[in-house]
From TrEMBL:
<protein>
    <submittedName>
        <fullName>Oxidoreductase</fullName>
    </submittedName>
</protein>
<comment type="similarity">
    <text>Belongs to the short-chain dehydrogenases/reductases (SDR) family.</text>
</comment>
<keyword id="KW-0560">Oxidoreductase</keyword>
<dbReference type="InterPro" id="IPR002347">
    <property type="entry name" value="SDR_fam"/>
</dbReference>
<dbReference type="Pfam" id="PF00106">
    <property type="entry name" value="adh_short"/>
</dbReference>
<dbReference type="InterPro" id="IPR036291">
    <property type="entry name" value="NAD(P)-bd_dom_sf"/>
</dbReference>
Length: 259
């Protein structure tokens, strides 16, 4: 897909991977609605970037985003559903609102956006890119709710591929741990899995994937290869998860020590 002249919506554009995607998209002749809860860090660039404040965890605000895009751009060719967050925690009590909060942002919002894009574009060619995660296929102790949201998105995307029409390109992106404030925001001194990659590498992989109309985008060659090996040799996953669990257990001890 040629990016030039395309009308794009990018969520989670104020930080991390989204910020890097926004930066790299500017080299093309595009118009972008850059979405974030706090848009103070999103640059407004005439005829290119339009910041838009939106809480994508709320249906009404996603509806307003689409209405704004139609009014401002006249349509949406590419929707990049990048917004998402994690909790690093030990689940100790039942909290429906806590679960709903993360699922509304990480699962309901991107799936609803896919439905909105289909209804909007009918037979017109379009693309939706959803930031999934390597943890959609690899357990990460301490991040059970976050992992479950990514398992859900992975399942949706892999089934929807077989339901997609000829004019629809639904792509999933599988970053490994990325050097952003993601884990810092998950919890104080949250355990960080290995390996890690730079956000600009993820962004460049996303843009390349869009241009090549890839259904599955793997920014890390390590993960692309390891996911095959772990199916043949499942004990590799067992060893990896045990290492991450040890990190999580030490973090829990740290948390108790400062209480």
């Amino acid at each position: 897909m040629d990016l030039n002249k395309k009308k794009i919506v990018l969520t989670g554009a104020s930080s991390g991977i989204g910020k890097e995607i926004l930066k790299q998209l500017q080299q093309y002749d595009v118009k972008i609605i850059a979405v974030g809860r706090n848009i103070s860090k999103i640059p407004e660039v005439e005829d290119k970037i339009i910041p838009f404040a939106c809480d994508v965890s709320k249906k009404e605000e996603v509806d307003k985003l689409f209405d704004f895009a139609l009014e401002t751009l006249g349509g949406i060719d590419i929707f990049i559903a990048n917004a998402g967050f994690a909790f690093c925690e030990s689940i100790e009590e039942a909290d429906w609102g806590h679960i709903e909060q993360i699922f509304s942002t990480n699962v309901f919002s991107p799936i609803y956006s896919v439905e909105k894009m289909r209804a909007l574009n009918k037979a017109k060619k379009y693309s939706v890119i959803i930031t999934c995660s390597a943890v959609s296929e690899m357990p990460l102790p301490g991040y059970s709710l976050y992992c479950s949201t990514k398992y859900a998105i992975n399942g949706f995307g892999r089934v929807y591929e077989h339901e997609a029409r000829d004019n629809e390109i639904i792509s999933l992106v599988y970053p490994i741990a990325t050097k952003t404030n993601f884990f810092k925001n998950a919890a104080d001194k949250a355990p960080i899995p290995w390996p890690m990659q730079e956000a600009d590498k993820v962004a460049s992989s996303v843009i390349k994937g869009i241009k090549n109309e890839k259904r599955y985008i793997y920014p890390s060659k390590y993960f692309a290869i390891s996911r095959i090996f772990t199916r043949v040799f499942p004990f590799i996953t067992t060893i990896y998860v045990k290492i991450q669990k040890n990190k999580f257990d030490k973090w829990l001890q740290y948390k108790k020590s400062i209480l």
